[in-house]
Design brief:
This protein is α/β, with parallel strands linked by helices and about 350 residues long. Helix content is about 30%, strand content about 15%. The strands form two sheets. It has a ten-stranded mixed sheet, sandwiched between helices. Strands 11-14-12-13 form a four-stranded parallel sheet, with helices on both faces. The longest helix is centred in the last third of the chain and has 17 residues. The structure holds threonylcarbamoyladenylate (TXA) and magnesium ion. The site of magnesium ion has 3 residues, from loops.
């Protein structure tokens, strides 16, 4: 990670959001085939892609992101038919889940096939695989004709990118190109499900909810256990699940509450900070903004409080927008544990450095 990255010009390639053929798409695919790094849109967040069968190409991802080599990359395929080319075993469970959720925001952790070099897997024997649903991602993967390893296209630990501009802000001059296919629609990363353990366990909550997974596999274990610190004895069971992650530069304080309790806690904390002369920002649902409008807060609205899909879609852009306001602290609250609430809480807690505050 200490390797210097020689400065280079990053191409910004625009293509239609529907994935229809374009010179930009062809060029992006050719760059991937030539072992270059190309950022591209998926339905969750922008990914930083490289040829997943080429160890040197994959190494470039870790260097560009300044990411530790122990943190495994997800391999992206254009369709489930190629699963057996990257996974050494494909259990029936995997086929069932692929049938139901692919293309879509679900990553399956399976035994790694030899075709995928160890560096892609963080040195381990498993591989995370997913088939993204974004039409641009699918067209790119089909055209490139290779499995593509892609983490989120941000600097290590920083907020994930949901637009090409976010990628540019983090990686300009460090990668060959960014394929701009418009903003991402899901907005939080895929759910990572480990199928190499019994019962299968969610390592990271994400775009496919625990309720949806359990409707197919009732025995799926929630992400609770993966909150165990990485310093635990024994092998790291959920590599890459850092306490601090997805984080803005500005200090973020997140209250584990919603509704009136959350607003009261945010008001108290805002007033305390302002007494110290601090500039305060807040992430709020649309209808909550009015309740705090008497305070001189810089507010980023996330959408209606009962629409967790919209809140997920806007979360990272809102965090990045507030991060550019030269604030001393950003206040936020969680959105419960149902549906996407689990992924939102996970991202907000890590963005705050690993701690939630009780109201
Ligand atoms: O939605 C997404 O998953 C996005 C888009 C680009 O596909 N990708 C993404 O990648 O979020 P990344 O690298 O930022 O996060 C992937 C996480 C890793 O940090 C790691 O925790 C977990 O997925 N992961 C990947 N492969 C794994 C494996 N073989 N075993 C355990 N965890 C794995
Ligand atoms: Mg990431």
């Amino acid at each position: 990670m200490s390797e210097p990255v020689p400065p280079r010009r990053t191409l910004l390639l625009r293509t239609a959001e529907d994935g229809s053929p374009s010179p930009a798409l062809t060029q992006a695919a050719e760059l991937l085939r030539a072992s270059e790094l190309v950022a591209f849109p998926t339905e969750t967040v922008y990914g930083l892609g490289a040829d997943a069968t080429n160890a040197e190409a994959a190494r470039g991802i870790f260097i560009a992101k300044e990411r530790p080599y122990s943190d495994p990359l997800i391999v992206h395929l254009p369709d489930a038919g190629q699963l057996a080319s990257v996974a050494a075993q494909v259990p029936d469970m995997a086929r069932q889940l692929a049938e139901r959720f692919w293309p879509g925001p679900l990553t399956l952790v399976l035994p790694r096939a030899e075709r995928i070099p160890a560096i892609v897997a963080g040195g381990g024997q498993t591989v995370g695989v997913r088939v993204p649903s974004h039409p641009v991602a699918r067209a790119l993967l089909r055209t490139a004709g290779i499995p593509v390893a892609a983490p989120s296209a941000n600097r290590f630990m920083h907020t994930s990118p949901t637009t090409a501009q976010h990628v540019l802000a983090d990686l300009d001059g460090r990668i060959a190109a960014i394929l701009d296919g418009g903003p991402c629609t899901v907005g939080v990363e895929s759910t990572v499900l480990d199928l190499t353990t019994d019962p299968p366990r969610v390592l990271r909550p994400g775009g496919v909810t625990l309720e949806e997974l359990r409707a197919v596999l009732p025995q799926v274990e929630g992400p609770w256990a993966s909150a165990a610190p990485e310093t635990d004895a024994g092998p790291v069971r959920a590599p890459g699940q850092m306490a601090r992650h997805y984080a803005p530069r500005t200090r973020l304080v997140v209250f584990a509450a919603r509704g009136a309790a959350a607003l009261a806690a945010m008001r108290r904390e805002a007033m305390r900070a302002m007494e110290h002369g601090e500039r305060v920002g807040a992430l709020l649902a649309d209808e909550e903004a009015a309740a705090l409008s008497d305070l001189p807060l810089i507010v980023a609205r996330l959408g209606p409080g009962n629409d967790l899909a919209e809140i997920s879609r806007r979360l990272y852009a809102a965090l990045r927008a507030l991060d550019e306001q030269d604030l001393d602290v950003i206040l936020a609250h969680t959105f419960g544990h149902e549906g996407l609430g689990l992924a939102l809480e996970d991202r907000l807690r890590r963005a705050a450095g690993g701690e939630l505050r009780m109201p």
